[in-house]
Amino acid sequence: MKLTASAVRFVAANFMIDGVWAGGEGLGGRRGLGGVGSVRGVDGVDEVAGRQLGAIREVVDVAGACGIDVWLRGGWAMDFHLGEVTRPHVDVDWYCWRRDAATLADRLGALGWRPDPRMPAATQLDLLRDDVELSFAYLDRDADGRVVVGAGPWAGTALPEGMLAGPSGRIGTLAAPVISVAAQIEFKEMFPVWMPERPRRPKDAADLARLRASAGGHPAR
């Protein structure tokens, strides 16, 4: 598959921000795993995963109360699509419309979430509370109505068609909007092609196998 400049810009916009690797390793990748805990409707999950699930519930509730649209991306999007926690996650990645970022920061700030000083809010909204990290990448629309990267050096780069049109996902009693499984597969398949200096990690290969199986064996590229 021939690479285009827009494809390279898209990957960079979504996985590299100010030189910090944000493609599944989190902002430092320093979190440890606790013992066995639980979250409402999901028994036997790790304590960190339980707190992350609780944070997802907070974001969904806050966004719903404000009339704001959000979508899970990354590893948690996969797990909500599959309906189970498949592996540990360092952080919780989201998309939101750029215009809604200030409201989200304000409403979540009232719940104890604070901006991550390492990341400029003009590019992406990153919030911390205890050992949980939330990361909101911004979306916008171009003059033709297409969904595009909403901020940063690659603002305006088109994102996959239909990315926001997929059904919500669910783990236990908790439902959350997620990006489409087709977009998840595309990102996982093409990332090591678009960014060869970042080879596919074992967990990425496992994620891709799960997603392909859930989508009826979507072929590799």
Describe this structure in words.
This protein has 221 residues and is α+β, with helices and mostly antiparallel strands. The chain has 6 helices and 12 strands. Strands 5, 6, 7, 8, 9 and 10 form a 6-stranded mixed beta sheet that branches. It has a two-stranded antiparallel sheet with strand order 1-2. A two-stranded antiparallel sheet has the order 3-4. The protein is globular. It starts with a helix and ends in a 7-residue tail after the last helix. The N terminus is likely disordered.
Key phrases:
34% helix, 221 residues, two-stranded antiparallel sheet, single chain, 23% strand, alpha+beta, globular
| H-E order | HEEEEHEHEHEEEEEEHH
The biggest sheet amounts to: 6 strands, mixed
Strand content: 15-25%
The percent of residues in helical segments reads: 25-40%
* Estimated radius of gyration: 16 Å
The count of DSSP E runs of length 2 or more, i.e. the number of strands, is 12
Q: First CA to last CA: what distance?
A: 8 Å
Q: What overall geometry do the principal axes of the alpha carbons give?
A: globular
Number of helices: 6
Q: Output mean pLDDT.
A: 81
Structural class based on helices, strands and sheet pairing: alpha+beta
Could you name the ranges where pLDDT drops below 50 across 5 or more consecutive residues?
Answer: 1-13, 15-41
Topology of this structure?
Blueprint: H1 5-15, E1 16-17, E2 20-21, E3 36-39, E4 42-46, H2 47-66, E5 70-73, H3 74-82, E6 92-97, H4 101-109, E7 114-115, E8 124-129, E9 132-141, E10 147-149, E11 169-171, E12 174-176, H5 181-194, H6 202-214
Parallel strand pairs: 6-9
Antiparallel strand pairs: 1-2, 3-4, 5-6, 7-8, 8-9, 9-10, 11-12
Helix pairs in contact: 2-4, 5-6
